[in-house]
Write a structure and sequence with these properties.
about 900 residues, alpha/beta, globular
């Protein structure tokens, strides 16, 4: 007598019985677990329960995920169906969501409904103890729409939604579900410490929540689960309909893991590598633990870190410790570059008969679950809430999120960090990550806020059985210890301190202990970079002119977008538009395979984007002053490959002479005043607010005249970031230093405040979980995704035409929210027609239509105050505003 799904247009047969939908979802959850054996093993080990028993237990709870839909308020969303099925009317209104109703019903009537005897092996527990034990699991299964169910202030009595006849049907359904999933061994509460059982249930609740969301998405797909209105026994439907349909659906969804290929050595993955670097040779043979383990790899740029990390991940996958890999990069530009490197190797990690998915954060092959035509038949909800089918289609249409469900994903670190923030569908991210190796590149690039979130992510990941690899050029001792300690907390342990001055270095942390492995430096990466400091902006011009006239290619790294645009404009007038490139385009001209003709006499004006994970090679480089670790990173793009004096690739030793880098900096005088840095870099004073560290960097570079890697690595980093470095900072910069330190403390505190708490479990609360597009993975001014479109006759098409399948994704730019916050209102239905053509429905972006105007394209939008703002887009320069301030 209760419907669970219904077509958009009412019809006598256009609905699916609620009991059948609940069993569909339970069957999908069961199938997901059986197809991911290592995940099932982890669940079983967490709870000390036999796997067969655990499958029954979880199936039972998943069959209750939509129990709130028995309510009169929900059933009345379709008045015709309500009267048709139950032959009565009701005054109840749908003022409380069905997930929250289901949560309140289960928690408030554990004894009456027999949920205790179906879950726990001891019936002598107090009502409060039972509620505490089962609350995380109830919250996880009823919170299947991406966030825990929320509390209403002074909610109405449940009997208003579940009158006596409905209550009898609810209890009858529960009795039959208990009969359907009979098992002798319940959760062994009697023989275990209750505190330990509660801790384990809270920990597993994070994964149960993700399992419930995935199962509900698959089980809500009408293609796999056509509507059934005929009554039959639950056992008959379970065996003849739910189980076989779920098996097919889960296999076709693309979520299950695939068998990794047996590890056969580094050269099997990378045939082009004839001689392994010392790091790669170590990774190929070192001992691996079966339990969660963390590797921190510190190596100079060009030392083969990426190949070593993929090799290490493959070894863990082949040993059964992981089912896949997610590579988290600092920016979208670096994610694109990493995707191009990984797409040729990822198939070698899996057996030939497997079909693993590789997904880039915003443009790549689509998983099977990303329906090409979104299922619009599932309209059981009120106008205030979206359906499971709609949520699934919209979520998976956004490849940034989908990359965490693929066997191989490449994206930004932000997508992984959202797994530990109170954002909708964070549980899906944890569920996708838990059986993967989490590989985070450029860890040194994390600010204190992102570092704090990363520590929480490592704690969650280790607690749920995952392993991680962190790649970095160098790390201060304090940062390295904080990362080790966070991972150890995940398995309730401590990471012993192993302080060593060795570099390069591999550190392995596992429950068996902490070990450090010094690594020999790669011969062709051991070099000295000469640094020539200049103290005035005009001094840079002469040096750049000389190197460019000599036919070299050069790069100037500016610390702000505004400075980069101004410099680009100046040098375009000097050299002409064909010889100057702005940071956001045509990097291939300076890549490893670039020719002398492509490179000669050309200049790239860039921001910090070039210092991270991009394989670029310049003959000469200028850099604005930055912290010393970033100077080292930027120098890693200077004479990176072996070339002849003309710039052609050659084998053997580089023939261009000693690498030389000019650093534009204030003179590191002994007693600088508080404007020491901002006087030369007024727009960058907030980019790197710790001016004391900048002064220590400038002093080092001016005194030493350069640096040798790897010999100087530890001394350089600790000389700027070490505990003793604070004492060397001059008094004139003390105020800026203190303000920066206070900001560091604030960012760390914000990271702790914003992140989820592992020990609390997936709990219902009164807080609002926002959409993940507004969850704070980074601090600073809020940004928004602007999707550029252009007029083609009377319709809007994507700005990008490079890849028709991903054209809308490739038309995105990020803009500060105060500049653009809404769409101009004068485009009528044309905007909606364009949005209907977007894979994600344009749900999380602002569309800005552009029209040609000379060499530029112009359009309009609304700013944060709701006022019209004009925008100008130039393919060479990017998005600008007529008044001159850039997005």
């Amino acid at each position: 007598r209760f419907w669970g799904k219904a077509d958009a247009v009412a019809s006598p047969e256009g609905f699916h019985l609620l009991a059948w939908h609940c069993l569909d979802v339970a069957a999908c959850g069961r199938s997901l677990l059986t197809h991911q054996g290592r995940l099932l093993t982890s669940f079983s080990e967490f709870l000390c329960v036999d796997q067969t028993v655990l499958l029954y237990w979880l199936s039972f709870w998943l069959a209750l995920h939509d129990i709130g839909k028995f309510s009169d308020g929900f059933q009345k969303l379709r008045p015709v169906l309500f009267e048709q099925l139950q032959g009565r009317t009701s005054r109840a209104e749908y003022t409380e969501r069905h997930d929250s109703l289901g949560y309140r019903l289960c928690c408030g009537h554990l004894r009456e409904t027999g949920l205790v005897t179906a879950s726990l092996s001891s019936s002598a527990l107090s009502a409060g103890t039972v509620r505490d034990l089962l609350q995380p699991i109830i919250s996880a299964v009823t919170g299947h729409h991406g966030k825990p169910p929320t509390f209403m202030n002074a909610p109405p009595p449940l009997k208003q939604q579940f009158p006596e006849p409905v209550w009898k049907d609810v209890t009858a359904y529960l009795d039959q579900v208990k009969e359907l999933f009979p098992f002798g061994g319940l959760l062994p509460v009697k023989d275990r410490q209750l505190a330990q059982v509660l801790e384990d249930l809270k920990r597993i609740s994070w994964l149960v929540a993700g399992l419930a969301v995935a199962a509900d998405w698959i089980g809500s797909n009408k293609t796999w689960f056509p509507f059934v209105t005929e009554p039959m026994g639950l056992k008959k439907y379970w065996k003849e309909r739910a189980l076989p349909q779920a098996e097919r659906a889960v296999v076709e969804s693309g979520i299950p893991s695939f068998s990794p290929l047996k590890f056969d050595g580094l050269c099997a993955l990378y045939p082009g590598i004839t001689v392994a670097t010392p790091l790669q040779a170590l990774i190929e043979t070192m001992h691996l633990d079966e339990m969660p383990q963390l590797f921190i790899i510190e190596e100079v740029t060009g030392g083969g870190k990426t190949e070593a990390a993929v090799t290490l991940a493959h070894r863990m996958m082949a040993s059964g410790a992981a089912d896949g890999l997610y590579i988290a990069m600092p920016t979208m530009a670096t994610a694109n570059a990493m995707y191009s490197r990984i797409k040729d190797v990822y198939r070698k990690l899996f057996r030939e008969d497997a079909k693993p998915s590789l997904v880039l954060a915003h443009s790549a092959s689509r998983m099977a679950l990303d329906l090409k035509e979104r299922d619009r038949t599932d309209h059981e909800s009120s106008p205030k809430e979206s359906t499971a089918s709609e949520e699934c289609s919209a979520w998976l249409a956004d490849n940034r999120k989908k990359s965490l469900l693929a066997q191989m994903g490449v994206g930004t670190i932000d997508q992984a960090l959202l797994a530990i923030l109170p954002a909708r569908h964070q549980s899906m991210r944890l569920f996708g990550l838990c059986r993967k190796v989490l590989l985070v590149d450029e860890v040194h690039a994390c600010d204190d806020y992102v570092h704090g979130l990363l520590c929480t992510l490592l704690e969650f990941h280790a607690s749920l059985g995952g392993s991680a690899i962190l790649l970095t050029a160098t790390l201060p001792k304090k940062t390295r210890q904080e990362l080790r300690a966070a991972f150890a907390r995940g398995w309730r342990g401590e990471a012993s301190r192993v302080d060593t001055g060795a570099y390069p270095l591999v550190t392995r942390i596992s429950p068996e202990g902490t070990r450090s492995f010094p690594v020999g430096a790669r011969v062709d990466c051991s070099r000295r970079v000469g640094v020539f400091p200049v103290f005035e902006l005009d001094s840079v011009e002469g040096q750049l002119r000389q190197h460019l006239e000599d036919g070299q290619c050069a790069c100037w790294v500016r610390n702000t977008v505004d400075d980069a645009l101004a410099t680009f404009s100046t040098w375009t007038r000097i050299l002409g538009p064909d010889r100057v490139t702005l940071f956001h385009a045509r990097f291939a001209r300076f890549g490893p395979d670039s020719t002398a003709d492509e490179r000669g006499g050309r200049l790239l004006i860039a921001t910090q984007v070039v210092e991270q994970s991009l394989d670029l090679d310049f003959d000469f480089m200028v850099s604005d002053l930055a912290p010393i670790d970033l100077i080292v990173q930027r120098a890693g793009r200077l004479r990176r490959h072996s070339r002849d004096p003309q710039g052609n690739r050659v084998a053997g030793v580089d023939q261009r002479g000693r690498p030389l880098m000019t650093v534009l900096m204030p003179d590191p005088v002994t007693e600088p005043d508080e404007k020491w840095f901002s006087r030369l870099f007024p727009k960058a004073r907030f980019v790197y607010p710790h001016h004391g560290r900048l002064w220590l960097t400038a002093r080092w570079l001016a005194k030493e005249g350069g640096f040798s890697m790897p010999e100087d690595a530890r001394r350089m980093i600790e000389g700027v970031y070490g505990d003793d470095a604070e004492n060397d900072m001059p008094s004139g910069l003390r105020r800026a230093t203190q303000a920066a330190l206070a900001q560091v403390g604030t960012m760390a505190a914000m990271a702790r405040h914003n992140s989820l708490k592992l020990h609390e479990g997936y709990q219902a609360s009164s807080s609002v979980w926002p959409e993940d597009v507004v969850a704070p993975t980074r601090l600073g001014e809020p940004v928004i995704t602007v999707r550029l479109a252009r007029w083609e006759q009377d319709r809007l098409v994507p700005w990008s035409s490079d890849d028709p399948w991903h054209a809308w994704d490739l038309s995105n730019v990020s803009v500060r929210r105060y500049r653009i916050a809404g769409e101009a209102p004068d485009h009528g239905t044309t905007m909606e027609e364009a949005r209907a053509c977007m894979p994600d429905g344009g749900k999380w972006c602002v569309i800005v239509p552009l029209s040609p105007e000379g060499d530029d394209w112009t359009g309009s939008a609304l700013n944060e105050s709701g006022r019209p703002v004009r925008v100008r887009y130039n393919p060479r320069v990017g998005l600008q505003f007529p008044e001159g301030e850039n997005a």
